[in-house]
Amino acid sequence: MNIFVGNLSHDATEDDLRQAFEAFGQVKSVKVIKDLFSGASKGFGFVEMQAKAEAQSAINGLNGKDLKGRMLNVNEARPRPEGGRGGGGGGGRSGGGRPGGRRF
């Protein structure tokens, strides 16, 4: 089962998360989401646990608990909507790529 962990301290590491969740069962993977450019934590992550019962126990046991000075928001991760991330699209302006569409 994949678990979302929100309100994560920017000081919390993947090892910190692994230790917290291993108290409830076998952890398959841990990922703290980081900014691509700065490498700083975005304040959330995901933990995948082997057994659903252990994962549910971890959710119940860790939701609202303090880790590195922040109260965790822990719940079952929801799958991404179809098509991935969404958002963004290219502009369709013409005019030779110049500001204001003027050509020189």
TrEMBL record:
Keywords: RNA-binding
Region described as Disordered: spans on this chain: 74-104
PROSITE patterns: RRM
InterPro entries documented for this protein: Nucleotide-bd_a/b_plait_sf (IPR012677), RBD_domain_sf (IPR035979), RRM2_NsCP33-like (IPR048289), RRM_dom (IPR000504), SLIRP/GR-RBP-like (IPR052462)
Compositional bias segments (type: Gly residues): 84-104
RRM domain sequence ranges: 1-79
Alphabetical list of SMART domains matching this protein: RRM (SM00360)
Protein name, as recorded: RNA-binding protein
MF-aspect GO terms: RNA binding
Top-level lineage group: Bacteria
